[in-house]
Write a structure and sequence with these properties.
Blueprint lengths: L1 E4 L3 E4 L6 H5 L10 E3 L5 E9 L5 E14 L6 H4 L9 E2 L21 E5 L1 H4 L8 E7 L5 E7 L2 H11 L5 E4 L1 H12 L9 E10 H4 L3 E3 L1 E6 L3 H8 L3 E6 L7 H4 L4 E3 L4 E8 L5 E3 L3 H6 L7 H4 L4 E6 L2 H10 L3 E5 L5 H10 L8 E3 L10 E2 L3
Parallel strand pairs: 6-10, 7-11
Antiparallel strand pairs: 1-5, 2-3, 2-21, 4-5, 4-9, 5-11, 7-10, 8-9, 12-20, 13-18, 13-19, 14-16, 15-16, 15-19, 16-17
Length: 368
């Protein structure tokens, strides 16, 4: 199905560019702003940052070249478990390219982020290598990258990570293009391969990077009527509008937003009238806030905007009388795992991983 192979990177040299250029997905570097690693190997990428609670965190991963062969006809092969292959789980549906506001030039830029169980990679993350990049970005996240070129360690990494089941956390579009490139190839043989740069870390440490993506639903109807309908299925508790600086960090329940009020969705009602608290650990482990309204919107004309901040949701709701917002909590790691293992796809844009590795430090493979 796939192999993880060593590679040589062409990288933007941080000392030769402004920080804004290093972070700009549209920046085209000049030759003197690039550096080339002549010797193939793997890379140990490290990010040091503060999480949403202000606690210091460190995330490490292995960077290599993911080679995919032409066994499959569609991307579904990466998602489904089959008798002769290991499962390769797609975390959530990548959405409609044409109408996806998150889909732009950046989808072709940077690594695919894959996740594996800690037991498969933990020992690999302690190897030492040569420091080749050291930069702090504008968000205060410190990035380090080490080049691992020792043949013995390269062999260990290849053996440990090739053919292993992986969950796609970020870079769905890039991986889709790689697979589609194979599918449209005129030459069809077991040697047909496509490749992408991959950043591989553990599911356990990636939990530190899960961020929510909020929604704004623009309805073809009265939000008050919709709220009344929802009250039959949820226990809603009215409250004042949330403050911008703390709402996304302190949500104890998913929260509906109208022009002048907020309503916490504190419980879900079943057909027999019983209620399940949305703050209950069992509910959080098996559900995502972004799934709550989907069944009630099927026959209701609407379109959705996706937002990363509470402020953007409030602004969007205030601008349109027919809009209603949904502030979501981050998807739990348990829900994350079940989505991957059971192939129960989360709705589009349910989860965001941040911070991410700087794509400028791993632009492409050198052909030397």
């Amino acid at each position: 199905m796939h192999e993880l192979k060593p590679l040589s990177l062409v990288r933007i040299e941080p000392l030769e560019v402004e920080l804004t250029q290093l972070e700009d997905p549209y920046f085209i570097p000049k030759p003197f702003q690039l550096t080339i690693d002549a010797e193939p190997g793997f890379y140990l990428y490290e990010m040091n940052f503060l999480d949403t609670a202000g606690l210091p965190r460190r995330l490490r991963g292995i960077v290599g070249k993911l080679e995919i062969n032409a066994q499959s006809d569609t991307l579904d092969h990466l998602r489904h478990t089959e008798a002769e292959t290991e499962p390769h789980a797609l975390l959530h549906h990548p959405g409609n390219d044409k109408d996806d506001p998150f889909n732009d030039h950046r989808d072709t830029w940077g690594p695919v982020w894959l996740l594996v169980g800690e037991d498969r990679i933990a020992s690999l993350l302690n190897f030492e290598g040569q420091l080749v990049a050291n930069v702090t970005d504008s968000n205060g996240i410190h990035h380090r990258m080490y080049h691992i070129y020792q043949s013995g360690i390269i062999a260990l990494i290849e053996e440990a990570l090739s053919h292993q089941p992986m969950t796609i956390a970020d870079g769905h579009h890039r991986l889709r293009r790689a697979v589609n490139g194979l599918n449209t190839s005129k030459k069809r043989s077991p040697d047909d391969r496509s490749e992408v740069i991959a950043f591989i870390s553990t599911i356990e440490t990636a939990e530190q990077c899960i961020r929510p993506i909020h929604r704004c639903y623009h309805l073809h109807g009265d939000p008050a009527t919709f709220l009344a309908q929802l009250s039959e299925h949820f226990r809603l508790t009215e409250q004042s509008l949330p403050t911008l600086d703390s709402a996304s960090r302190s949500l104890i329940a998913p929260t509906l937003i109208t022009k002048d009020r907020a309503y916490q969705i504190e419980a879900v009602r079943s057909e027999d009238g019983s209620e399940t608290e949305t703050a209950a650990p069992d509910w959080i482990a098996s559900n995502a806030d972004s799934e709550l309204l989907s069944p009630h919107l099927k026959n209701l004309g609407h379109h959705i905007e996706y937002h990363l901040t509470v402020e953007d949701v409030l602004r969007s709701v205030a601008a349109e009388s027919s809009a209603i917002g949904l502030l979501c909590r981050g998807v739990s790691i348990e829900r994350f795992k079940s989505a991957a293992e059971d192939e129960h796809l989360l709705p589009p844009k349910s989860i965001l991983f941040a911070p991410k590795p700087l794509a400028a430090l791993m632009l492409q493979e050198s052909k030397i």
